[in-house]
Amino acid sequence: MSSTHLTPAKPDAVAPLMRGITVLRRLTEAGGTSSLSGLEKTTGLARSTVDRIAATLARMGYVRLDGRDAVLAPRLMELGNAYLAALRLPRLLDGRADALADELDESVSLAVRDRDGIRFIHQATRRRAMSLSFRIGDPLPAERTAPGPLFATEWTPEDWARWRERRSADPEDRGFPAVPPREHPVGDEEFEKRTREAGAQGWALDDQLIEPGLVALSMPVREHGGRIACVVSVVSHTSRHTADSLRDTLLPRLRATVRAMERDLREAPDRPPAAPAGLATWTGASKQELGREFIESLARGLTVITAFGEGRAELTLTEVAQATGLARATARRALITLEHLGYVAAHGRAFTLTPRVLALGFPPLSRTTLPQIAAPHLAELADRLHDSASLAVLTGDEIQYTARVATSRIMSVNITVGTRLPAYATSLGRVMLADLAPAERHLPELRALTPHTVTDPALLAATLDRVREAGYALVDGELEEGLRSIAVPVRDRTGRVVAAVNVAMHSSRRTVAQCVGEVLPELRETVGRIEADLRVAGRFTRVPVA
Q1: What does the pLDDT look like over 224-238, one tens digit per residue?
Q2: Residue % of the chain over a pLDDT of 90
Q3: CA distances, 189 to each of 117, 195, 196 (Å)
Q4: Statement to judge: residues 361 and 380 lie in one domain
Q5: Structure pTM?
Q6: In this predicted model, which residue has the larger pLDDT, 408 or 537?
Q7: Closest Cα to residue 287, out of 59, 61, 72, 70?
Q8: Do 106 and 203 sit in the same domain of this protein?
Q9: Do residues 498 and 532 both lie within one domain?
Q10: 400, 418 contact by CB (below 8 A)
Q11: In terms of domains, do 165 and 220 share one?
C-alpha cells in the first residue's frame, strides 16, 4: 500500500481507535450521556474495554465520568471545531447568515454535503412557539431537505447508486435520528425530479418534507470555480408562509445574500497555518501515569483530527506527523483508520477532514449552556473547599444565579438557581459591574442592606475600579450580616465578562486574609477551566449564558 494514499485496509487499521470512535458515536446518539453498562450493550464491546476507553477519553477531557455514567464534555468539540476551522465557511459566512435572519425574522442555516446527505454547519434561529431547528452536525437525508436537490445536481453516477442503495435498505429513514421516520415512503422519482428543477432554477424548496408545518427555501453558495461550497436556507413555518409565498417573498433577498457570500469567498485572504497540536508527548506521559488504563493509540488517533484547522485544510502525511509530534508510521495508521471510517478523505498526497467528524459529539454539545459547562467545575470546587460555589449573570442592576453547588453545613447560604440579588452589594455583581464602563452601570438607589453596605456612589465607583484592577471582588457582610463571599469574572473568547463565579461562606469559616490566600487561587483555577471549555464550545456556536 502507498503511504501517501490510504485505501481502507483492516490490517493497518488501529482497532482501539475504531472502538473508541464507536463509543463516541453511541454517546452522541444517546444525547451525550450513557451509563457504562449501556455503552457495553450498544457497542457490543466488553465492559473492561468500555471502561478503558472511557478512562482514556476522560483523561483527554473529552468525556466526564459521573458515577456510573459517561458524559460528553465540551472539550470534545475541538474535533468538530477542527473540521469547521479547516472548512472556513462558518467564519466567512455566518455574519451574513445572521444578518439575513435578523432582517427576515426567519431562521437561516448553512449546510454542507455529506455523501448522500447533508449536515448543518451554522444556524441563526428565531425563538417561537412553533419552530424547528436541527443541531449543528445532525445528519439529514438529502431527499427530505431543500439543500439536498441542490447538492444532488453535482452527484456522480456512483453517488446516485449509493443513495438508491441507502434508500432501499432504509426506506423509513431510521438511520437519521434527527428527523421523524417516514410514515409513507415514496419512490425515487420525486427527488430526481426536484434535483432537475433545482439545476434549472438555481434554488429549491422544502414543502413540509421533514415534518408537517416546516417550509424552507435554499440557494447554493458557489466557490470561484463554480462548485457548491455550501447551501444557505431560510426556514419558516406554515403559520407564517406557504412554500410558494416563502419563495415569492424572500427569494430576491436570499439571492442578494448569496451574491455577497460568494464575493466574500472570492476575496477571503489566506490565513497562516494555526500552531501544530504537538500532543504526542502528552499522550506518552499519560500512558506512563495511567498504565494499561490509558489507550495511547486511541488518544493519538483522535489527536490526528486536531492537526487540521484554520490554514491547515489539506495536510500530507508528513505534515500530520509534524503537526502532532507523532511518528510518521503512527500518523499513517491513524489516517488509514480515519479514512476507513469516513472521517478523512484522501486527495492524491493530501488529506482533508469530512463533515462526518461532526458526528463525534458535536450535535448534543452544540446546545451546551454556560451553566452546564460550569456545573461539574463548581462541584469540584465546592468539594475541595467545603463551601458553596455559584455561577451568576448580570441582568440589569441585579445578579441572577444560574448554577450552584451548595454544601450540607448546618449554617449555610440558602440560595437557589434563579434567585436575584442587588448587584452592587454582592461579590458576583461587583466583578461584572467592574467590567462595564461607568456610563453602562445601571444602578438603583443604593440602599443599606446591613450597616456595612456601601451606599455612597463615589465610594462604590472607587471600589469597582479596585475590583477591575485586582480581578476579584470580596464582599464582607454587605448583603447579609455574617455572609462573606469572594468572586472572579468569567470571560468569553473575546475577553468580555459574561458571568461570574463565587465562593460564599459564613464569616466564622475563614478570615478575609484566608479568603484571598486560600480560596482565591482555587477560584481562579476553576474559572480558568470553565473559560477553557467555553472557548472550545463557543468557537462556532453561541453558548447561552443562562
Answers
A1: 889 999 999 999 888
A2: 77
A3: 17, 10, 11
A4: no
A5: 0.91
A6: 537
A7: 59
A8: yes
A9: yes
A10: yes
A11: yes
